[in-house]
Design brief:
The chain has one domain (2-253): P-loop containing nucleotide triphosphate hydrolases (Rossmann fold). Helix 1 (13-27) packs across helix 11 and helix 5 (101-109) packs across helix 6 (125-133). The chain has 12 helices and 9 strands. It has helices at 13-27, 43-48, 60-66, 90-94, 101-109, 125-133, 144-160, 183-196, 210-217, 225-228, 233-248, 270-274; strands spanning 2-4, 33-37, 73-75, 81-83, 114-118, 136-141, 166-170, 280-281, 284-285. The longest helix has 17 residues, at 144-160. It is of the alpha/beta class. It is globular, with a radius of gyration of 18 Å. A hairpin with a 2-residue loop joins strand 8 (280-281) and strand 9. Bound molecules: adenosine-5'-triphosphate (ATP) and magnesium ion (MG). The site of adenosine-5'-triphosphate (ATP) has 17 residues, from helix 1 and helix 9. Magnesium ion binds at residues 13-14, 39, 118.
Length: 287
């Protein structure tokens, strides 16, 4: 399981989680991807929900109560499976005191592929559950404030005994030149500090792009970078980041060329899902 977490808001967690789900699904046709969010903003269903099909009534809260997400998983856009977000996380939080709860629920769910989890910008009970359940925690860092917030995430993982699961991703790097310094210089200083602290950092950084911002805000349905921003720097970077994440998870090489091009591609078939034989089972690497 892969979680994306930062105590700082607006650093690109959801954009990263949702688009990595789409890129990894496209790179590994036989790898079922399940995404859901512990946030209550409802972006997951707006991005992955299929038009005209009632998604059913169960959401993350029901899966949590039933101790398995099995009943509430839907096949969505881009061939990615998703669970509807809980419209209100207060009740869910009350059931998240034990930080191992989500790990146990995911084990019972027995998802035969990769689970990607988007979290809220806090370090409360639900997010702690995500940190405890994740094989990898991606922490987007875009400035000094988010770097300090990543430090808090590391502290939780250290206390839990697995700080080595965290990975920093430099995000929202502004490559345009400013009067005082360039965003690239800031990114380099952040990189130095991350190295000095001994944190693991993915090589690929994600640029700030007006095109990506527009994809999220133009309509009520955020569009995929893979399908709607081809040819942009961010498209290339996400492909590279997906490759890096895949290597880190022990997946073999993915497809060299990515499908896409149409803004709304057909959903993946259940047949492809059934024939899945990946190295990943239950979110863990199988050797
Ligand atoms: N690479 C990018 N370039 C430009 N804008 C981006 C990029 N990634 C994300 N954004 C924009 O930044 C804002 C925050 O992104 P996003 O919602 O992914 O962050 P978040 O960390 O999930 O936020 P929150 O803490 O509210 O959950 C959104 O308006 C999004 O469109
Ligand atoms: Mg978010």
């Amino acid at each position: 399981m892969l979680a994306v977490s930062s105590n700082k808001g607006g650093v690109g967690k959801t954009t990263l989680a949702t688009n990595l789900a789409i890129y990894l699904r496209a790179l590994y046709e036989d790898l079922p991807i399940l995404i859901f969010s512990l946030d209550d903003q409802g972006i997951i269903e707006r991005m992955f929900g299929l038009e005209g099909r009632p998604p059913g009534d169960g959401n993350v809260k029901h899966g949590w109560a039933e101790r398995s997400f099995e009943r509430v998983i839907h096949l969505g856009q881009y061939g990615v499976h998703y669970v509807l977000s809980a419209p209100d996380t207060a009740l869910l939080k009350a059931r998240a005191e034990d930080p191992m709860t989500l790990r146990r629920i995911l084990e019972r769910t027995e998802w035969p592929g990769l689970v990607i989890l988007d979290t809220k910008s806090d370090l409360e009970g639900l997010t702690r559950n995500a940190l405890y359940a994740a094989d990898r925690v991606l922490m987007p860092v875009s400035d000094w404030a988010s770097l300090e917030e990543a430090g808090k995430g590391f502290a939780i993982l250290r206390r839990a005994g697995f700080p080595e699961r965290a990975r920093i991703v430099l995000a929202l790097v502004d490559r345009r030149t400013h009067l005082e310094s360039t965003g690239e210089e800031l990114a380099e200083r952040l990189r130095e500090e991350i190295r000095r602290r001994g944190w693991s950092l993915y090589e690929t950084s994600i640029s700030r792009s007006p095109r990506v911002e527009a994809l999220n805000s133009e309509t009520g349905h955020p569009l995929s970078i893979l399908h709607a921003a081809r040819g942009t720097a961010v498209h290339r970077e996400l492909r590279e980041l997906a490759d890096e994440v895949a290597r880190d998870l022990g997946l073999g090489p993915g497809q060299r060329t990515l499908p896409g091009g149409s803004r709304r591609p057909p959903v993946g078939s259940r047949g492809a899902v059934a024939s899945f034989k990946s190295a990943l089972l239950g979110g863990r690497v199988r050797r």
